[in-house]
Specification:
The protein is an alpha/beta fold. The chain has two domains: 152 residues, SPOUT methyltransferase, trefoil knot domain (Alpha/beta knot, 3-Layer(aba) Sandwich), CATH 3.40.1280.10; 49 residues, tRNA(m1g37)methyltransferase, domain 2 (Trp Operon Repressor, Chain A, Orthogonal Bundle), CATH 1.10.1270.20. It is built from seven helices and ten strands. The strands form three sheets. The protein has a five-stranded parallel sheet with strand order 2-1-6-5-8, with helices on both faces. Strands 3-4-7 form a three-stranded mixed sheet. A two-stranded antiparallel ribbon has the order 9-10. β9 and β10 form a beta hairpin. The protein binds adenine (ADE). Adenine binds next to β5.
């Protein structure tokens, strides 16, 4: 079973997304074990302080190195980690290829920063994969951790049911966007499902899906300046 450890200063923010829908089901089916560690449990001074002012000045508070070091070193003493992932705006932009790679791991660790950031020595010492989810700034790494977990866990065999198969997803085999889907009613407020999908002609339907996929993929590349 894959194991994923997340270290966070705001662990409560992860409990609902980790205990809902397919990610919850994956844990119930023993396909993945997800363990959240509260950074504050590793602060030992009177006030359980985890943050402090940055050297050199500037606004905001930084997360102190000691609680991270203690928590990460404890985990490293217990098992080998294939990847120690640091969400950071300066990291490599996340994509499907990276989630495919992470999905082959036995043990993953995700170290989420919060507030202004984390003392850089934590990254220097432990990070194996620095990951950004795009050119924008979030308040913390928890949402990034959740995105990575969601994209990885759904690839573990036995997590999705056949009907939810990940195999022909958008982006699964390279940068391909899938054709749109429709369900009943065939006519909704005058908006009709494409005739071909109601025809029962499997060959024609397959051709239509391929054609739609091509159009959407070209549009996607164009609007994202990808060629
Ligand atoms: N932390 C704050 N913003 C982020 C981003 N865009 N990607 C990864 N980690 C982040």
């Amino acid at each position: 079973m894959m194991r994923i450890d997340i270290i966070s200063a705001v662990p409560d923010s992860l409990s609902s997304p980790l205990n809902t829908s397919i990610i919850k089901r994956a844990q119930d089916r023993n396909k993945v074990e997800i363990v959240v560690h509260n950074l504050r449990d590793y602060a030992h001074d009177k006030h359980k302080q985890i943050d402090d002012k940055p050297f050199g000045g500037g606004p905001g508070m930084l997360l102190k190195p000691e609680p991270f070091f203690e928590c990460i070193e404890k985990l490293l003493s217990e098992r080998r980690y294939d990847h120690i992932i640091f969400p950071t705006p300066g990291g490599k932009i996340y994509n499907q290829k990276m989630s495919n790679k992470f999905s082959l791991a036995e043990n993953l660790m995700i170290v989420a920063g919060h507030y202004k950031g984390v003392d850089d020595r934590v990254r220097q010492k432990f990070a194996t994969d620095e990951i950004s989810i795009g050119n924008f700034v979030l308040t913390g790494g928890e949402i990034v951790a959740m995105m990575i977990i969601d994209s990885v866990v759904r690839l573990i065999p036995g997590v999705l049911n056949d009907s939810e198969s990940a195999l022909n997803d958008s982006l699964m085999d390279g940068d391909i966007i899938e054709a749109p889907y429709y369900t009943r009613p065939a006519d909704f407020q005058g908006m009709k499902v494409p005739e071909i999908l109601l025809s029962g002609n499997e060959k024609k339907i397959k051709e239509w899906k391929e054609e739609q996929s091509k159009i959407l993929t070209e549009n996607w590349k164009k609007i994202n300046n990808m060629e």
